[in-house]
From TrEMBL:
Domain HTH tetR-type: 12-72
Gene3D superfamilies: Homeodomain-like, Tetracycline Repressor, domain 2
Keyword terms of this UniProt record: DNA-binding
Keyword DNA-binding part of the UniProt annotation: yes
Species per Swiss-Prot/TrEMBL record: Paenibacillus puldeungensis
Pfam (any one): TetR_N
Protein name: TetR/AcrR family transcriptional regulator
Keyword Amino-acid biosynthesis (UniProt): no
InterPro entries assigned: Homeodomain-like_sf, HTH-type_TetR-like_transc_reg, HTH_TetR, Tet_transcr_reg_TetR-rel_C_sf
PANTHER family: HTH-TYPE TRANSCRIPTIONAL REPRESSOR SCO4008, TRANSCRIPTIONAL REPRESSOR
Length: 224
């Protein structure tokens, strides 16, 4: 390995060490309470070193979301072969089930992505275009799973042909996030006062969303 290659490898290792430290701090303290000082202390680097690699805490948050999106996309791609040839309505259900599984296996990444998706600010200050674009592209890849399933469903005749694919995908994604947000944050309340299981309600909610877009003829035949 040449000198330049060795230096680049060392930079990449240090960069990943800083992101690792950022995850620990932000996951434990929350984004708003976490500081660059906390991250530098966890990484055992100076603040100056942190700023050599990253412009801001916002950029580090984007890097964390990139990691989370990559893991989520890996999980989404795993069952593609199993559902790609089946009914598009089942593909949409599988999408939601995989998202739920991701929330169980990687709760911290899921929370980071959810807080960003449901947040009022876009964390754009101090974030280089490259970091933003990578995160956005991964998010759009997730969105493409929805639009693809909707297009397939219209072609199969199981989803209403009058729907605008992009509009419907945005609404489905928003509604799905809303379900997750409510059923996770209010889990104890729902279980205590309504005697309902959040996981069962989530799957039932996804069924309701799917039924709202299926074609009338399919609605009479489709079984869960």
């Amino acid at each position: 390995m040449g000198v330049n290659e060795r230096k680049e490898k060392e930079k990449e290792v240090r960069r990943n060490d800083i992101i690792d430290a950022s995850e620990k701090v932000i996951f434990s303290k929350g984004y708003d309470l976490a500081t660059i000082e906390d991250i530098a202390r966890e990484a055992e680097f100076s603040k100056r070193t942190i700023y050599v690699y990253f412009n801001s805490k916002e950029q580090l948050y984007f890097e964390i979301m990139v990691r989370g999106y990559r893991k989520l996309i890996q999980m989404m791609e795993a069952p593609v072969d199993e559902v790609s040839g089946v009914n598009a309505l089942d593909q949409l259900k599988q999408f939601a089930r995989t998202l739920y599984q991701f929330s169980k296996e990687y709760p911290d990444y899921f929370k980071a992505i959810m807080e960003y998706e449901n947040g009022e600010r876009d964390f754009v200050n101090g974030v280089p275009d490259q970091s933003k674009e990578e995160c956005y592209l991964l998010g759009e890849k997730m969105f493409a799973y929805l639009t693809s399933a909707l297009k397939n469903g219209i072609e199969q005749g199981v989803i209403r042909s009058d729907l605008d694919v992009v509009n419907s995908a945005i609404v489905l994604w928003s509604c799905t996030l809303g379900l997750f947000n409510t059923l996770i944050k209010k889990r104890n309340y729902i279980q205590h006062y309504h005697k309902r299981d959040s996981e069962e309600l989530l799957l039932e909610g996804i069924d309701t969303l799917v039924r709202s877009i299926q074609s009338e003829s399919r609605g009479k035949q489709y079984e869960k």
